[in-house]
């Protein structure tokens, strides 16, 4: 079922959301100071391309540097990516078959706003406790 949802997601919105994250990553990698944001953006682009079967977990070792970085990210690119997820989620929820994908788009809003300090892991790893 995850594979089917991922394929439908990829066709309807995953490709364009991943392109948005990749574009934000390229822009962030232009300046040396924002390279960590670019790396996080490329990591999330893969998650936006194929989200079902993966989830996010907080990194226990992240601290105030992640918090400050997330505030900067939110102002620079996070708001725009979150607006993209909101728009995509509303459009997907307009159809019955798109409701699960719309909910997935809404669930990606927190990571689009605050990508630093979280890891993207398989759902099975979280269930077995291996992600911690």
Automatic annotation (TrEMBL):
Keywords tagged on the record: Membrane, Transmembrane, Transmembrane helix
The UniProt record lists the keyword Lipid metabolism: no
Q: Do you know which InterPro entries this protein is assigned to? A: Inner_membrane_protein (IPR052937), UCP028777 (IPR031308), YccF (IPR005185)
Q: Which GO terms describe its cellular component?
A: plasma membrane
The lineage's top-level taxon is Bacteria
Q: Domain named Inner membrane component: which ranges?
A: 4-54, 68-117
What stretches pass through the bilayer? Answer: 7-24, 62-83, 89-106
The record's listing under Pfam families reads: YccF
Q: What is this protein called?
A: Inner membrane component domain-containing protein
Q: Which organism is it from?
A: Gordonia spumicola
């Amino acid at each position: 079922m995850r594979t089917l949802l991922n394929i439908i997601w990829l066709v309807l919105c995953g490709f364009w959301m991943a392109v948005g994250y990749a574009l934000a990553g390229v822009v962030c990698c232009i300046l040396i100071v924002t390279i960590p944001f670019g790396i996080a953006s490329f990591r999330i682009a893969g998650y936006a391309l194929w989200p079902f079967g993966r989830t996010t977990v907080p990194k226990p070792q992240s601290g105030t540097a992640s918090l400050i970085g997330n505030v900067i990210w939110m102002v620079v690119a996070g708001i725009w990516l979150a607006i993209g997820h909101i728009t995509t989620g509303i459009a997907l929820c307009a159809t019955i078959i798109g409701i699960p994908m719309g909910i997935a788009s809404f669930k990606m809003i927190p990571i689009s706003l605050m990508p630093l300090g979280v890891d993207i892991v398989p759902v099975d790893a979280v269930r077995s406790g291996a992600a911690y």
